[in-house]
Amino acid sequence: MKQADAAELRRELRAFLAAEIAADGFDPAAGSWGPADPGFATRLGARGWIGASWPRALGGQGGGAFERHVVAEELIAHGAPLRVNWVAEWLAGPLLLAAGTPEQQREVLPRFAAGRLSACIGLTEAALPDSDAPRCLARPDRGGWRLSGRCRLIGDALGRLLLLARTGEEGAGLSLFLVDLALPGIALLGADRLGFDGVFLAADRLVGAEDEALPLWHEVAGIAHGAPAPWLRHLPLLAALAEAHGPPEGEPVLGRLLAGTATLRAMGLARAGRTSPSLAVSAALEAEAVPAALLRLLPEEARPAPTEPPPGLPPILTARRTSRRLHPLAIETARLLTGRLAFGFDPKLWEALEDGPVLRAALPPDLGGEGEGLPDLLAIAEAAGAVGAPLPVAETLLGHYALALAGLAPPIGPLTIGPVQPGEVARFEAGLLVGRLDRLPWACHAAAAVIVLDGSRTILAGRPAIGAEGRNGAGEPRDLVLLEEMPVLAAGPPGSGLTPGGLRDLGALFRAAAMLGALGRLARGRRARGLAAAARFALKQAAREPSRFTIACARLRTQAAAEAAMAIPGGDVALSGRIAAWSGEFGTESEWASWLGRQARRAGAGAGGLWPLVADRGRMPADAEETEHE
Questions:
Q1: How far, in Å, CA of 394 to CA of 350, rounded?
Q2: How far is CA 41 from CA 16, 73, 82, in A?
Q3: Which residue stretches of 387-525 are H helix?
Q4: From CA 566, how far away is CA 522, in angstroms rounded?
Q5: Helix/strand/coil (H, E, C) string of 92-121?
Q6: What's the rounded Cα separation, in Å, for the pair 131 and 133?
Q7: Domain end position, chosen among 207, 222, 237
Q8: Which domain holds residue 217?
Q9: Does a structural domain hold residue 100?
Q10: How many domains does the chain contain in total?
Q11: Digit-coded pLDDT (tens) for 195-216
């Protein structure tokens, strides 16, 4: 789907939903899983927005997974009632499209798409992870099947049931059946159980091959885990926190939650139609974090009414693990540095890096470089962080990047960059630099310094004049530099390079990449790996589209992943210390979270404010590589 088509689809959906709300067609405060609304479902179906990815001959629009995801996002963000059609859209329809006979598909899919028929899913014990799952048997019986036992429901007991029942003797596989809930012998046993007392099903009710339904269920349910419900259903709660004039600590909490929502939203959109275990894990964690934060920060009278959760899916039982594809320059960085590191700056190792392609990555080809963009430079910084390199790799790459933007050729040797601290100002007067900059990284070992001035002007200065040496928590040099004592080697024209704020933002991005590389050695377990995968996705999004919003999301998600990894007992203490030291540079986690929280409060509330802040920030997310966790 093209960018313009996606934008037009969103405009159509928002206009339709705004008209529905204005005409009291639904109450957005009730949430998408409030009371069932068959009338809204039929109006939605009449516009072609149920089953939009299905073939036209079966009531759909012939679109793809991306269109379905865009429609779902807008509906949930606006609180549209989806109880009638959600299971049909995301579970029952895909199961029938994958395995149903043409007759079965024609029987129900057009009615699903029109919003005139609901669906639910029934699961027996082999499809559920818990030991007390109900048991449902389907035995052959004179030209059909006889059902007995119980199943667990996903969705409301309405319309058609897609049932996974055990077939044959103990140990045999599961089969999928299309069941009319009006048949005699079916009883509702509580909110999420159905009982079957000798229910007869004709032979044509079997969907797909006998005993082979479980892999199909895992595939469809795995994709449904990527539906936007888990992270967007809490948007009204985030909007309430954005509106509230609560305590000062509310802004950073709001910023952290918004970073989680925005990252999951981008992951879901980019991976529409694919299974993503890390997305499911991160979504579950975020679903817990939002209500907990609101209960702590919002007074009871300011809390919106709780909304019902979407139909629950069991966890993904089998996580696919593939090797993450690494950039060749990241592989070369690891090859050069692994096993060769000493404590402190090593001039010989630095020369080895300069002799290869790694430190030429940011240079344009006419200067003998690779002309790589930010995604590739961050991959190198991540590789250097993974091996704990006590070298200014990130600083030199960022310095080269800033010089290239200003049309300046870089010198040989390691670089430092500045300003690093907010509020610090360097001036360029009569051909001389004026001022002092604190905590410049690796300045005592730098051959030159890249200084960015107001007015988007980049200055290449000679060897830094050290006023006082300092170190960060990891023992890396962070020095006070006296600009008046440094020669100016080259000056870019005004308006041709980064701003000081832009340099600090990119510095935060490079630090996040190094942190991500280091925590890769600490992250163990499903939770930590899932958070690391979300952080890596946010980092790639920020590298492709480096706005302050995307950088803030990457920085905050990396911090969340780092905290989870460092909390695991038995980790590398020195590595944890290095991550902690990096996390306080180019803006602390709290400063980034507060900035993002302020953006949320300025945006306004609900679908008209907070949602466009998340959804309308540029081009659609590009497909991301599978992460190591997946």
A1: 13
A2: 13, 16, 7
A3: 393-405, 500-519
A4: 7
A5: HHHHHHHHCCHHHHHHHHHHHHCCCCCEEE
A6: 6
A7: 222
A8: 119-222
A9: no
A10: 4
A11: 999 999 999 999 999 999 999 9
